[in-house]
Amino acid sequence: MSFRNRLTFFFVVLVILPMIVVAFVGFVLADDSEEGQINAQLSTAERATIGLFREFQDRAEATGRTIGRNRDLAGAIQSGDRPQIQARLDEAARATRSRRVVMRLEEAGRLEAGSGDGVAPARTWLVDSQGDAAGELTTSVVSAEEFARLAARVTGAEVVIQGPDGPLASTLSDAPRRLPERGKLEVDGRDFRLTGFDAPGFETDRIAVRLLADDDTQGVSASALEVISILAIALILAFAFALTVSRSLQAQIQRLLDAARRLASGDFRVAVPTEGNDEFAALGTEFNLMARELERRLEELQLERSRLRGAIRRVGESTAKGLDRDATLTIVVQTAVDGVGAAAGRAAIGDGTVRRFDEVASEGDVDSFRDAIGAAEAAALDAERAVEIQMEDAYALAHPLRTTEGGRVLGMISVARSGSGFNDGERELLSYLSNQAGVSIENVDLHETVQRQAVTDELTGLFNHRRFQEVMATEVERAKRYGGAVGLIMLDLDNFKRVNDTYGHMQGDLVLREVARVLKESSREIDEPARYGGEEMAVALPGTDLEGAYLFAERVRRSIDELELPLIDGPGTLHVTASFGAAALGEDGDADKDALVAAADAALYRAKRSGKNRTVRAG
Questions:
Q1: What is each CA distance from 114 to 75, 88, 89, in whole angstroms?
Q2: Which of 413, 447, 481 is where one domain is finished?
Q3: Max avg pLDDT among 255-259, 273-277, 373-377
Q4: Can 359 be counted among the known catalytic residues?
Q5: Verdict on whether the full-model pTM lies above 0.70
Q6: CB 85: neighbour CB atoms within 10 A?
Q7: Given 61, 158, 426, 535, the catalytic residue
Q8: Angle at 66 between CA 60 and CA 68, to 5 degrees
Q9: Are residues 492 and 420 in the same domain?
C-alpha cells in the first residue's frame, strides 16, 4: 500500500468515521428522546384519565346510595305502583343532579331517569322502606361530553369516548367512528399517537376511552435527513481534500510527522513551516488549516457535551414525575454513571432504620468498588452531604437522597471509577440527580398512600366495597379456571340502629371498629375482610368450602358475642351480637360472583329472621 493510500486510510479512520459515529449517536438520541417524551405523556395522561374515571365512579356510587336511601322512593317501591316509582326516581335523579339512573326491581322491572347520556356508572343495592333488598341501582353523575372535556383539560391530550354504536363524545372535530386501543393514526391532517382503555358502561355496554397526543417524531426524521445530507457533502469534500493534499507529502514527511506528533499531544496551535512555493508548502498550509478545524471541532464537541448535560437534566426532571420507584432509580443510576463517566453506580433505599440501606438498582461492575462505595455511603450519612472516598485506585462519590420537607434521608446514590476523582461539575450533576430522585421517591410514596386509601374503609381499616367486589371477581374466576373452592361469609350487626339511637354515633363507630378488629384477627393472610356497607361486613375466603366458611363464621360470631365494649358517655359496658350467612363455590360449581354474594346475603337474612346471633349456611 502506498503512502498516499495509507494517509487516505488514516484520514478516514481518524476523522470521517468519528464524524459518522457522532452524527449517528446524535440522531439516535434525538429520536429516542422524542419517542420517550410522547410515550411518557400518553402514559401519564392514561393514568390521570383512569383516576378521573374512578373518581366519578366513586361519586356515582355515593349518589346511588343517596338515592337508595330516599324514603319517598322506598315507599313507592313498597307500594309496587310503577308510575309512582318512576316519578320518585325522576325526583331523586334531579335532586342529586344525576346524569342517568337505571333501576332494576324484582317486581316493577327496569326504570330509567335522567338524560340517558352518562359515563362512569356505579351500581348499588336498593332497599325498600322495610330495609329489605329490592333491586339494584346504576347511577352516573357525568356525561360523556363533560368527561371528555375535563379529561382533555387535565391531561392536555385529545379525548374520544366511543360506545357500542360510535363516538359518544370527542374533543376532535372529526373523530373516526372506531379507534384502536394503541398505535398511530392521522385525523384531519394531524398525526397522532394514541392510547386508551375500556371501561364499564351501563348494564352490559362497554365504552372505550382513547387519548391522542400529537406525534412530532416526523420532525426528527426530517432533521435527520438534513444532517445526513450535510454529512455526506462534508465527507465527500473531506475525502477529496485528503486525496489532493496527500500527493504533496512524499519528500518532507519528517517535518510533517513532527508537527503531527505535536498535534496528537493536544497542541492544536501547531504550525507547519510553509517556506517556498512547492507542493509541500501548500500541504503545510492545509495541515495548519486542518489543525484550526480540529480546534473548532473540539469546541463544538464541548458544546455538544454541554447540551448532553442539559438533556441529562431534562431526564432528571422527568424522573420526578415517575411512579415506579425501582425503574426510576435504575434510570437515575444509569444517567449518573453516564453523566459523570463512572465505571459503576448503585441506588440504595432505607428499610426504616437510619443506618441500613438495601440496593435496588445498579449499573456496571459494582462488586469491584463495593468497599469504596460502602465507605463513601457511610461517610455521607454521617456528614449529611455528598462525600468522596478514595481507596487505593478506586474513587467513590455518594450523595444522600432526601425528602423535600424535613430533610429525612431516604437512601443513597453512589458512583465509582478507577484512576481519577470527580470534579465539581460531576459532583453538581450527581447532586441534581439525587435531589430529583428524592422528589420521585416521595411521589411514589404519596401515590401508594393514595392507592391504599382508595381501597380501604377509613373507619374500620377494612377493604371497602369496591375492593371487595374486585377480590370476589378475581377469586371466583381463579376457582372456576383452576379448580378449588372459594367461600364467603357476610355478617350484619344485630340491632345496630338501636345502638346509634341510644348511645350515639361515636359509640356506634367504636362498635364497628371493634368488630372489624375481631374480623381481621380471625382472618388468614389470604382472606379479604371488607366493610360491605353500613354495619354489614364480608370476608372472602379463598380455598375454603361451605363447611369451612361456616366454621369460620361461627368462630367470629362467638368472638363478637364475647366482646364487652365500654360505654363512651358513662360507666358500664355494651354487648353486641351479629348474624352471619355462609356460602361457597365448590370445585364443580358454575355460579358467578354475583350469585355467590346473593347466596351469602340470602343466608344472612334467614339468620336475621330466625332469631339473630347465629350462622346460616346458604342452600
A1: 21, 12, 9
A2: 447
A3: 373-377
A4: no
A5: no
A6: 23
A7: 535
A8: 100
A9: no
